Amino acid sequence: MSVFENVKIAKKANILYEGHVTSRAIEFEDGSKKTLGVMLPGEYDFTTIHEELIDVESGELEVLLPAQDWKKIVAPQSFKVPANSKFKLKVISLVDYCCSFKKH
């Protein structure tokens, strides 16, 4: 889906790693949430509360998920991150992404 309709968008950006990772939260009519963002080249550590599906719209990165080896992700490609976990990213080239949160 390239266009989201009938959503609420957070005015304030989420800014991490001194501005190298930014996103904006969006909420759909059914209460589901996503973030749309950009990551500049670099290495980043993240933690999750909910299961996440990360769609890489453009760019290239490597991801290290729990109990797995590094995996290269090249747009357009997606990967899932388990709930309540930590993961690492090595962003090779600027990444435009959409992250969907799955609540249980």
Automatic annotation (TrEMBL):
Signal peptide: none
Enzyme Commission number: 2.4.2.1, 2.4.2.2
Molecular function in Gene Ontology: guanosine phosphorylase activity; purine-nucleoside phosphorylase activity; thymidine phosphorylase activity; uridine phosphorylase activity
Family: Belongs to the nucleoside phosphorylase PpnP family.
HAMAP family the UniProt entry points to: Nucleos_phosphorylase_PpnP
Protein name per Swiss-Prot or TrEMBL: Pyrimidine/purine nucleoside phosphorylase
Superkingdom to which the source organism belongs: Bacteria
Function: Catalyzes the phosphorolysis of diverse nucleosides, yielding D-ribose 1-phosphate and the respective free bases. Can use uridine, adenosine, guanosine, cytidine, thymidine, inosine and xanthosine as substrates. Also catalyzes the reverse reactions.
Catalytic activity line of the entry: inosine + phosphate = alpha-D-ribose 1-phosphate + hypoxanthine; cytidine + phosphate = cytosine + alpha-D-ribose 1-phosphate; uridine + phosphate = alpha-D-ribose 1-phosphate + uracil; xanthosine + phosphate = alpha-D-ribose 1-phosphate + xanthine
Xref: Pfam families: Ppnp
Enzymatic class: transferase
Native organism: Arcobacter nitrofigilis (strain ATCC 33309 / DSM 7299 / CCUG 15893 / LMG 7604 / NCTC 12251 / CI) (Campylobacter nitrofigilis)
Keywords from the UniProt entry: Glycosyltransferase, Transferase
Gene Ontology CC: cytosol
Gene: ppnP
